[in-house]
Every structure is written in structure tokens, then in C-alpha cells.
Amino acid sequence: MIRAGEERRCRLYLVTPPALEPRSFARELAAALDSGDVAAVQLRLKNMDDAAMREAIEILAPVAQSRGVAFILNDRPDLAAETGCDGAHVGQTDVGARAARRLLGPQRTLGVTCHASRDLALRAGEDGADYVAFGAFFPTATKEAPTRADPEILRWWSELMELPVVAIGGITAENCAPLVAAGADFLAVVGAVWNHRDGPAAGVRALEAAIGTALAER
Q1: Are the C-beta atoms of residues 51 and 73 closer than 8 Å to each other?
Q2: pLDDT confidence of 4, banded at 50, 70, 90?
Q3: Could you tell me if residue 141 is inside a domain?
Q4: Which of 13, 15, 20, 81 is deepest in the core (most CB within 10 A)?
Q5: At 147, which CATH number?
Q6: What whole-number distance in Å separates Cα of residue 126 and Cα of residue 185?
Q7: What is the pLDDT of residues 113-139, one digit of tens each?
């Protein structure tokens, strides 16, 4: 993933479905990553015990890392550090950013969900985040979104801050152009890839084509 101060361009950030079978999903993940320029994969599993989480990480992390793609664990900076993930992403009801940074150490990536709040994003940056995430920008069936964000918050952040910004929530190839135009560094997507009618690889290619068109017009 890019860090503050590096050249800014919009790339894909894939988030896994909340439930999956690791070995069969590994094939889907490989196909998706081999189809485009994906910056990161976030493993987001719910209602799974630590043993099952470790197994999923053991199977899926090498698929991403062998391709130079950052492997980020949702909610669990402690487990991310223990198992060799590249970083962790925390929400506002998870481990606080400062505590997460201590658990991860200085080298691993820390991302923080900031909903549609400028104050939360500024605080996350002060607390050691490597990127902030705003959303949801569109209706999403993946999870209940407590806020709806406007693309203007991406423009405000990208014009003022060097810290990268992620857009998330209902993003598809058909609706992503305003987010790219507003300065999103990453588009975090779930259904647009894993539920694509022609498979994950086609989902990645469609999103990359849409990003390319939006960047050319920016």
C-alpha cells in the first residue's frame, strides 16, 4: 500500500466476504489478484474463533503476499502482528487506533474507519493511522452502514492531507467515477468483485477499466 508522501493514484482494495471457506476462496482470490493492480486485501471474517481465523490467515495471506499485495486483518491488530499479516484495519467500536498501533508496531499498516467524520479522521491520523476510510458512499448489503458519506469529504481530505484515503460502501464499476474524481487513493470493494456475474477476475477488470476512465477525465 502507498504511504504518505508517495505518488497518489487510485487502486483497488479488496475486502473479503464476511463468511468463506478458506481453501476454495483461495482460488477466487488468486484469480482476482492476477487480473489487475490490487493494492491490498482485507480479511474480514465475522463470528469466527481464533483457531479458524489463524487457519484462514495461513491459507490466504500467502496468496496475497506472494503477489506483492498487502494482507490486512480486520478488527484484530493483535492477531495480525502474531500471524505475520501486513497490517490491521479497525473500526470505531474496535481497539482504538493508539492501542492498535502499539500492537502492530511501526512497520505494519494501520487503517481506521472514520465513517463520514472529519474529526474522526483527523484524530486517527494523530493516533498513528497509515490511512483513513470514509463511507458508506452508496447503499450496501455487505454490512449495516451507520452513515452516508459525500464524495466532497474525499476531496477535502486529499487536498489537505498526505495520508491516503479509502472510499468504501456499495462501490461498483458503474458508480465509482465521482470517488476517483474526488481524490480517493483506494476503492474498497466487496460485492462488485466477489458477486460479479462473470467471476472475481471480471469484477476486478471492470473496476480497473472504470478507474482508468475516471482518472483520464480527472
Answers
A1: no
A2: low
A3: yes
A4: 13
A5: 3.20.20.70
A6: 19
A7: 999 999 999 999 999 999 999 999 999
Is the backbone of residue 105 left (phi > 0), alpha (psi -120 to 50) or beta? Answer: left
Task: List the Cα angle 126/132/138 in 5-degree steps.
Answer: 150
Q: Is residue 4 assigned to a domain?
A: no
Does 96 map to a domain? yes
Query: Is residue 2 situated within a structural domain?
Result: no
Backbone φ, ψ for residue 42 (5° rounding): -105, 120
Number of domains into which the chain is organized: 1
C-alpha dihedral sign at 66, 72, 76, 78: positive
Whether 126 contacts 108, CB under 8 Å: no
Q: What is the pTM for the complete model shown? A: 0.95
Burial of 30 (0-12, 13-18, 19+ CB in 10 A): middle
Could you give the CA distance from residue 74 to residue 196 in angstroms, rounded to a whole number?
23
Range of the domain at 16: 11-217
pLDDT (average), residues 28-39: 97
Amino acid type, 160: L
Residues in the chain: 218
